[in-house]
Amino acid sequence: SIIGASETNAGTSYEYTLYKNEIPANELDRWLTLEFERFSDPVLRLFHTELETVYEEYNMMQGMDEMRAMNALMEALFEHHPMGKSIIGTSEDLRNPSMKGIVKFFETWYVPNNMAIILSGDLDPEDAIKKIDGTFGKMSSKPLPEINFHEEKSLVSPVVKTIYGHEHEMFNMAFRFEGITSDDRLYVSMIDMMLNNAHAGLIDLDLVQQQRVFKAGCTPRFYSDYGIHFFYGAPRFGQNLDETRIMVLNEIEKIRQGEFETWLMDAVVNDLRLQQLRLLESNDRVRFYLQSFVAGNTLADELSFLDRLNRLTKAEVVAFAREHYKENYVVVNKLNGTPRSLENIEKPRITAAMINRDLQSDYLNKFRNQVSKPLVPEYLDLESAIGKEQLEDGLELKYIKNENNDLFTLMYITEIGKDQDPELALAMEYLPYLGTNRYSPEEIREAFYRLGISLKTSVKEDISYIYLSGLERGLHPGIELLEHLIQNAKVEEEAFDNLIDGVLKQRENQKKDPKMIREAMMAFGKYGEHSAFRNILSEDELREIKPEKLVDRIKNLSDFKHTIFYYGSKSVYEMKKLLSKVHNVPKVLKDVPVPKDYISLDFSKPRVLLLDRPSEQVEVLFLAKDKQFDAKTFITSSIFNAYYGDKMSSVVFQEIREAKALAYYATASFATPGKANEDFFIEGIVITQTDKMKEAVASMSALLSEMVVSENSYAFACDNIRKEIQSERIVKTDIFWTCQENKRLGLNYDYRRQKYKAAETLTLDDMQVFFNNHIKGKNYTYLIIGNKDEMDLETLNSIAKIEELTLEQIFNF
Question: What is the value of pTM for the model shown?
Fold first, then answer.
């Protein structure tokens, strides 16, 4: 945190381990110094507590159906290759850890001839290379051990596996190919996008658009030795997994038989160029370089990939599909039921590590004394950051010029959401399934795809968006097509009936989704039965809606006052001329309905709300209410959160995970509401093993009762805030979304200026005052999600009498 790093994390794939940081451009020297120290001569502290964290992760994955299904799929695809083993390892590996083995692994593989440093940002490449040579260049290369494995036998018939779990039913299927440097990657990439590009692929149009399945798609993954083409699908009501899978296989058969038009291949290449353009305009381009390094390709090879793809012919693609897509696949069916043969690792005896936050090593003192030239923060002037023009019909056009490339975004924004009009969200879901008097629904999707444009809709509680994005050359015909669709949409009866069935199926699946259950519990804990989350149409209400009513909702949305936002390369004059021609609205626009306000519950007494459900872990959510939003409290809380609970370097994470190994995931924050008229809440989350629940709850409760005081940790947090703000640049469409966020909070200025000043002037004593006034002594609601039979109910009842909830209560369906 001293150098202002953010997004600090690490991850392991089948072929690499990645260490990621986002750092201010002026801190490259200190970052290289620190990372060179870490990778050249590491001291592996906190070994036993981090080992327990890995146990937690292993056990957590035992309860993740998709992860278990993927592991089963890879195991069947690769009987001999290391990719057939789970990335996290086996329970036997984890039960018998070896510090010597870890050191040997590090010394063998963490060598410069097996490493890459990938940098992207505001830097001088030649200067950066010199600095890297001056640090990592001192490391010595070593010969790498050879990895030998038996080549996998060709699959000649389907391999079928079945697993059980508590989440919704689905299948995973995969075909195996040669590695990333082979021509297989070209053909599979083309076939994949022809089948599923989220717009006009065969699976998109034949299965998803026509709502013949609940969900289906595919994606390729290529590695050094092998490539894999993954497929997935989930059934609708009255459908089984075999039926869903057969429908997906039938779409693959269409490729094998050449039942597709050649324009689709051209559109796929254009789409991939668009995706590449979006990737390369941001620092996410590091993923592009990462793939090149892991594959052993030159950057020129990667950059020429789309040109080579563009040279493929239909005959070549068909011939490849006929040879490689036969009965040579693996399928894993994930059915509803009690998981079988799960092997959780029991909690070992852990002695908590003592964290002395005020003790500083000589290295740390020396490191802190290295001074970097500070960057100057750049703040937005919210009044001028976005241009504004009045159109002749009284609408406001907001715009930002794209000076970099030929990408655009256009949005129609209406401050009407599902709270004012619950049927509007359903109407927006209906829109992609509608045709007009001139085009079928499939023809409209194909037309947008040919233009290199995406059409999307979004409906929040009190605002809705219809937006186009893509290549600037398709903007004019794209808007005309959108306006034609909106004004001439016609009822599709079968599509409507399928849509309602799909909504109900989605609701059924949400009640099996841990993330959605957590969100529902949190909303119920704050607002009880009267919340935006529970404000939905009942099944009876959904069945009674006439599709004509939804089509009218779409056609009449532009009759209300709304705003248009444009980000692109066209001039304001060009956009005003274009919009006045195609965007027709009445002379007098209607006022938008007043949004609903939801009143949060009384938190004068502690509560324990328990949702009993099968789970390999227990989730404990801590919730307490504070005052209504105000700007001063918001700024102070943002400093407090950075110090106490919302980062990996924060007190909560260090105490619960690093020192005591009580949870894989632990965080706490003074949470900012979404709107100015809503309340602040203190929110904490601990996800842990059931046998550690009592200790985890006690530890988090202690942290929320008495503030841990550390001058050093607080100084680090404030340094980090200032450096993050110094280096942060809000550009492109992020300017628009930042202004939207500030507007909802009633702020007409860039609050980062106040936050920066607060990080300079507020002291740890100020944090103690904030803690005492806003966090300490609160009555908390404890939201418990997990297997009731395995919990320490006595401990929970000692807090407050347990109130048991059902899924129907928290979801309202």
Answer: 0.89
